[in-house]
Amino acid sequence: MRVKKSPSPRGIAATDTLRDAGRFIPRGEALTSKKKVLVVDDHPMLREGLVQLISRQPDLMVCGEAGDAQQAMTLIESLKPDLAVVDISMAGRSGLELIKDLRVMHPDVPVLVMSMHDESLYAERVLRAGARGYIMKQAGGDLVLKAIRQVLNGEVYISPVMSAKILDTLSGRKPRGSSSPIEKLSDREFEIFQLVGLGKSTRDTAKQLNLSPKTVDAHRSHIKEKLELQDATSLVRYAVRWVEMENAAPAPPVT
Fold first, then answer.
1. Looking at the predicted structure, is the pLDDT value of residue 172 above 80?
2. Which domain holds residue 92?
């Protein structure tokens, strides 16, 4: 990959493909005593808030930023971070797919998922995919830092409530709290369900997920069966309402 030097007096190295959303730190500022964290989030303001939080810590540093999964893979290859903090919902390839790719291609890089979405629907999925932790953006700065350090220490981080729920499931007991029918969906079905709620057609969904339209239609049929919906109109209505509720209260920037 051709590297083009920035005219910045601080000497920040950047490639043509990472000029806008991907960012490197100045090489001379890398401190071996600090753990390197890569931040992956397609919301610039939320990403910047997390970067500022991490950068204030004496034992942590942000080695790079990425706005999508493709940029994240490029930066991980070149920067070798100690940890990737990843948002689950991004344009293009999802954070869930990025986690699965990292488990295969960079198994030594642990992933902490930081998301605005309800952990009851996402935490177990990301752990199965290979992530080492899940924390909601609403949790606050102190808990975010605790999660980062816990995962860097080789542990798994989830909230006490989610931990109890997973233990109940593993022990064969009925999980505590109310369960959503959405939990019945496989990871791929869950992705397609979200895209239906965003108004994506079968053709658009197939293109985004690199699937054939026939495969997408088959998944949609399985989704209708699992959610006990009668037809495509009912599926669209249900998915749109679910997406609207999920996005009703955007998470504030981490401070």
1. no
2. 4-168
